[in-house]
Amino acid sequence: MSLEDVYKLHVNDIYRYLFRLTRDARQAEDLTQETFFRAFLSLDDYRGEKVRPWLFKVAYHAFVDWHRKQMRRPLQLVEHLAEREDHLVDDPAETVVNKEMWEWANELLLQLPEKQKQVILLAAMPFSYAEIAEILEIDLADVKRSLFRGRQKMRKMWRDGVDDE
After folding, report:
1. CA-to-CA distance for 165 and 150, rounded, in angstroms?
2. CA nearest neighbour of 125 among 25, 55, 47, 38
């Protein structure tokens, strides 16, 4: 499989992952290109493992590097998450409810510690626990623990938010 085929096959998934992390379409595009650029440069380090987890590992490291640079810069306002288009819903009231629930779930996800957020996002991609451990370079037990605790925290925050309303 050529690098161009790999790009075409995985670019959308890498972009969605990075968009969820950055909440910025332009930055996600830049990091997606950075991911494939780094992947091209590090082809010598590729040991024949599965391509998809390897690319997500490269994307994760590109995000971490970008995030560290952002932390050194003065605080900037973050644009709101773009609306998610849901073509299956015809009822306007249902569309509004779905949009609010989507935004609320994203806000809850952003409140989680970084590792739990990463694990939940990768599990939704869907990756196996072993692949997530490989991408994030953590133990398999740590993946399971972070996923369990992250989901548990999100459920609690969700319930608390419902109770407040």
Report:
1. 23
2. 55
Tell me the C-alpha distance between 90 and 123, whole Å. 29
- pLDDT tens digits, 1-12: 677 888 888 999
pLDDT in tens, 21-75: 888 899 999 999 999 998 888 877 666 678 888 888 889 999 988 888 877 765 4
Residue 59 CB neighbours (<10 A): 26
Contact residues for 46 (Cβ-Cβ < 8 A; gap 6+): 54
